[in-house]
Amino acid sequence: MPELTETIYIDRPPAEVQAFLIDPANPTLWQSNLVEFELLDDEIRKGSHVRGVSRVAGRRFEWKMEYAELDLGHRAVLRSIEAPFAFTVEETLVATGGGTTFTWHQTTESLGGFFGKLADPLVVRLYQRDVRSNLSNLKELLEA
Question: Is the Cβ–Cβ distance between 131 and 4 less than 8 Å?
Answer without folding.
Answer: yes
